[in-house]
């Protein structure tokens, strides 16, 4: 029977810089009387990876550039926050009051370069932001290796985040970083029920699973930053998430 | 424990015009020794809804307009297919060789207006296409009512389809029509772990669940056009999917 099961790991602790996420996951699995099985996927919220990697950025520690000041005025944002947004970005794509959408230095199109102020304990005298991980694919790869060392099973990893989209309302989970599997499945060569070649051949499986886990994370009454996903038959591959990002020359909506 | 379970209904038959999808679902559930429970979500592939509603469009039964001919030449498509695309659309947004992206008459931004040639048995002398349902929200509402009449349980319904996206590679499932619940969840007024108001407040839960089910449909070895999804705590609401569609005046990426 074709099925998929998702479970938010219970009682996951708040994460601080330097914490060992793999060890926290193993402890949480153990508390839930669960263990990793081959083929399992772990979806991990970007936020706890960023916290463990100490990706905090302090507003009082930057001097906004002229560009940041001008953009902040247009978008009605704090110029110091905008300075951090620009430092994390390659290009500003859209700017209207309340919204700045950029191409992040790693290629994601993301409001505020994915920089977040929610769920961050901040000192009011020195408020801080949380940046995306330095290299989410590398974070995912290391987490996979750490978990394999602890449990002998190397799960597929997705680091997920949520973002707005063109054309449609509401945010949706997507895969910020991956490890161990092909994030875009190529179905070229497969045929439909009647033997015709499939017209659409590339499926963003990592984003579909990130969205599923993101839904579940949002449903939990308490913080649920890790979801165990069982039943997905993914194609093992030694690659990260770069194939999910459309080449800007081939993007019709910039 | 916060969890979500998805199961593709087994042995689902091929669907023909006039078929009663609700009755087919009840039969398939029964064969799987499953039954609907309050709170269940059924995700149903657009393709079988369109087939049951006889939304076939025949290439030989249209005379392409001059606009269709010109667009077909630019996009390297069949002018008769392009005629159907235009009849189903409000506006052509992008046109390059091999690709035409339109705003469908119901507001979706969709390549080829969602018109498909895969999984359709076609007579080579009179090839045919399959259009989207006339009104997917209405289809979803009727399916929900039919299932309630047959089982006494009114499941939440998502009719899903797959589409490409701006910025990212690969297609992804999304909610084409919904019934029974709020497809965009508004978390305004909720606070984060530290009591700060959430910055991002609208989540496209219907699209997240559609993506999850779409992943599972794509994994099945045989046709699996219906997925039973259990564990989602959705907000019951007497509305369809229109709130998922961004108003064109507020869309920065057109």
From TrEMBL, chains A, B:
Presence of the UniProt keyword Manganese in the record: yes
Coenzyme F420:L-glutamate ligase-like domain location: 12-231
Source species, domain of life: Bacteria
Protein name: Coenzyme F420-0:L-glutamate ligase
Enzyme class, broadest EC rank: ligase
Record-linked NCBIfam families: F420_cofE
GO molecular function terms listed in the Swiss-Prot or TrEMBL record: coenzyme F420-0:L-glutamate ligase activity; GTP binding; metal ion binding
A matching Pfam family: F420_ligase
InterPro entries: F420-0_g-glutamyl_ligase, F420-0_gamma-glut_ligase-dom
UniProt organism field: Spongiibacter nanhainus
EC nos: 6.3.2.31
Keywords: GTP-binding, Ligase, Magnesium, Manganese, Metal-binding, Nucleotide-binding, Potassium
Keyword DNA damage: no
